[in-house]
Give the backbone structure.
Amino acid sequence: MTKPAENKLWGGRFTGGLDPLMESYNESLSLDKKFYAQDIAGSIAWARANKDVGILTANELQQIERGFQAVQKEWETDSFIIKPEVDEDIHTANERRLGEIIGQAVAGKLHTGRSRNDQIATDLRLWVREKLVEIEQHLTSLLQIIVSRAETEIDITMPGYTHLQRAQPVRWSHWLLSYGFFFAADFKRLKNVIKDLNYCPLGSGALSGNVFGVDRKAIGEELGFEGLCWNSMNAVSDRDFLLATMSWGTMFMGHVSRIAMDLCIYSSQESGFVKLADAYSTGSSLMPQKKNPDALELLRGKSGQMHGLLFGFTSTMNSLPSCYNKDMQEGTSAILSTIHLLTTSIQILTGVLSTLSVSTTNMAKALEPSMLATELADYLVKKGVPFRETHHISGRVVALAEQKGKGMDELSVEELKGVDGRFGDDVKECFDHEAAVENRTAKGGTSKSCVREQIAVMKVLLETGEMPNWGLEG
């Protein structure tokens, strides 16, 4: 056993030391040292509040600010020396080093009325807020790439799929924007996650509040918070903002996984619609001809990891008693992993989309005549035939083409009239993939005019943070 914990913030109560294994099991500095800047900012704001209520003098506040500037520089230059026997977490490490620089007579006053419970709650909110703003910027870049490609490659037509079966022709831009609008919804939800976490818990103490009457509003404003956590017991025990971040990440990575899966299929030799840049592909250790879409496969895999992080910490928080419990420390590793996973995944996907090449030839080859069966049905609808009947008639045309071993577009007008006499001499005009695409003119469709409107809507979102509800008229 170690000696009694005299150097611990909580050591006065104890006469025996910790098991060395317990020391390492309990410590969190290896993880929460990433919050050094947030912890220092919170401590300076706390010192200022204590000066305003007479706990510290103006000179003592200046000493603390000067000391913390030196501490922060040590962290930033990787010269901070950690003392494992003392530095249990980022709070004790920063305060210990502050005392060495300015003396314990002043540094020892800093923790007056404050608990590590409201400290870590504050550090986490500040750090997550900063990282989510960075993720928002990366997400903006991803959306800009999607919009840019959709705009410049609007003439490319490709098969659209349902159930992994060729269904109807669509524009490549329309496919890109289908995921663009998933990510646009993620963009809007992320703004809400940032807004909802931006409330200040500092000044809540261990659980019951502060006895010295510190101005929590001034503390929160200094730290850039939008408001206060209004109940001190809730403030120190709330980790919903971590769960909300992980939940957002899980939904976002679900969308990432889906586009990655599509691109894996599109980049296969069977499709050949797209080709990944070498920067996002690897080869085989045995088969020299292979070019594997590893970036896309890893993105799919990371989606599963994100689900696991959310499920793990949700399970940790489930059925905890009120106020702070040490179980919550597990949120630190979970949120660090979450932020790293999300930040890297967005950048990888942005890189993939910005560098992949498109084979318009292979896309055009994959546009089968049978994909225009609905056009035949719609042709008869325009002649007043009920759709349920036209659907059946079109199906008979498909069956006839299969029976004769040729494409629907190769059937003669007479053969088509043999299926139904209401087909006119102009029926062959239905067998035009470009015309079929351009016929989808209702809002949200795949015609050029619709796709251009979708691009314009996305641009409004990127410029204003809001998406038009009904389009851009007026």
Observations:
- The beta strands are 157-162, 165-171, 199-200, 227-228, 274-275, 357-358.
- The chain has a mean pLDDT of 93.
- The first helix runs from residue 20 to 26.
- The longest strand covers residues 165-171.
